[in-house]
Amino acid sequence: MSFQDKISALMVRPGQDPVSKDEIPWWLKFAGRGLGTVGGILAVFLGVWSCLGILVVNVSALIAGMLQVVVGFIVLCVEAPCCCMFVENVQRMSDFVDSRPFWNRAAGYVVLAIPPIIIEPSVTIILGSGLIFGTGVLYGMMALGKKATAEEMRQAAAAAEASRQPGGVTSTSMRSNLVANAQPISFTGAPVFDSNV
């Protein structure tokens, strides 16, 4: 990353994604939307199924199921607002979330998916919340951006190797030591105590 790129990354407006959304492959965008939509639908149905645990007096299954239904509905409203046309202002919420950086959505999905699993780690809860967690991971990958080309990575490695000092120690090298002439520690034996003292 050049100095100019670092400065321009610092000058980004608040809320603007430093990774351009045009650099993300089309298949990764569709995978995020698709997994979010399917995960939201399955989370709602599996959450309702888990709520039936109240029939056997399993309160934690009821609470986790209700929480998973709410989380699944939120994900469904954000990823596929056409599925929730009957709810007012869903399109506006979806547009707001789309305007935010990808890492916001990734962090939100990961945080929302964890509590139902902690409350009731059953198969239905793990499957429903796991799909939402996977959607968060996909959006996290989108937030990381495009990988550097092989040539750029070679140049960065060559620059790091060229910056090494003649003594072989630099603070940026992965092989650097705190002290260049450090000697290994040796064990000389147990201390001898004098009984006359």
How would you describe this protein?
There is one protein chain. This protein has 197 residues and is mainly alpha-helical. The chain has a domain at 35-144. It has seven helices and no strands. Helix 2 packs antiparallel against helix 3 and helix 5 (102-119) packs antiparallel against helix 6 (123-144). The longest helix is centred in the first third of the chain and has 26 residues, at 26-51. The model has no long low-confidence stretch (mean pLDDT 80). The chain crosses the membrane at residues 38-63, 69-90, 102-119, 125-144. It is a multi-pass membrane protein. This is Calcium channel flower.
Topology diagram in text:
Blueprint lengths: L2 H8 L15 H26 L7 H21 L10 H10 L2 H18 L3 H22 L5 H13 L35
Helix pairs in contact: 2-3, 2-6, 3-5, 3-6, 5-6
